[in-house]
Amino acid sequence: MNNDLIYKVNDRAAFLTINRESRRNAISQEMITSFMDYFDRADQDETVHAVCITGKGEKAFCSGADLAVTLAKEGEDRLSGTRNYAELLKKMSGFGKPLLAKVNGPCLAGGLGLMLSCDIIIARNDTFFRTPEVNVGIFPMMVGALLYRNVGRKKAMEMVLTARKVPAPEAENMGLITRAVEPEHLDDEVQETLKLLTSKSPIGMRIGKEAFRAMSDMPFEEAVDYLCEALGRAISTEDAMEGMMAFMEKREPNFKGK
């Protein structure tokens, strides 16, 4: 695997660290391939219940695509990288296990796509978020699909049209991130959240994530009916039976992902 992305597993969580600090953790094509492979590995590993994504150092969580690589290409070939990035966003958005982004520094451009594809985002409260593409004559196209699904239209349009920096506290208020915390508390907040995620039923969360993803664009009545059927699938699992028995017996459940 490419050293631009580090993969480790600890305490039922997989950790993916973007390892390009000298390039402000910019996304390379090799890194996208590694992301795809590691997501497959994490998905197939029954000991992994959640995945945490972060960047090396404090210069940036991720500064987006490596423009030096993009500018080196010409014609249609230039789109090959963006298509690969689009596939990565789709893979992350459809991932069956919880994804958590630990935002340890500024998050820009395509980095927002990685971040917003995660279910939970915990960031330092002294960092910022930005879509600067308009400054170089382009637009945050694929990222826009995620922005529109996470924040209001007016806030999303202000970000992409002005390219201004959005401080973490404001990002929390507008729904761009889950929580902004003091820098010295970031590690503890992430570990505590991962502890909660990894203690839950893997199959219950997989069924739930799939159901919420499918119903998000449904009319209300159709969504309620669909979720009713999804609840039936969740209730029929061994983990659901174990969880309900543990609740009645006042003990911690022993989930097995079945």
Tell me about this structure.
- The protein is α/β, with parallel strands linked by helices and 258 residues long.
- It folds into two domains: 5-198, 2-enoyl-CoA Hydratase, Chain A, domain 1 (Alpha-Beta Complex); 202-248.
- It has helices at 29-44, 67-71, 78-93, 110-116, 141-147, 153-162, 168-173, 186-198, 202-215, 220-235, 238-248, and strands at 5-10, 13-18, 50-55, 99-103, 107-108, 120-124, 128-130, 166-167, 179-181.
- The strands form two sheets. Strands 1-2-3-4-6-9 form a six-stranded mixed β-sheet, with helices on both faces.
- It is globular and about 60 Å long.
H/E topology pattern: EEHEHHEEHEEHHEHEHHHH
- CATH class group of the largest domain: Alpha Beta
Cα end-to-end separation: 31 Å
How many helices in DSSP terms? 11
**Sequence of strands across the biggest β-sheet:** 1-2-3-4-6-9
Low-confidence stretches: none
Give me the CATH architecture of the largest domain, please.
Alpha-Beta Complex
CATH fold descriptor of the largest domain: 2-enoyl-CoA Hydratase, Chain A, domain 1
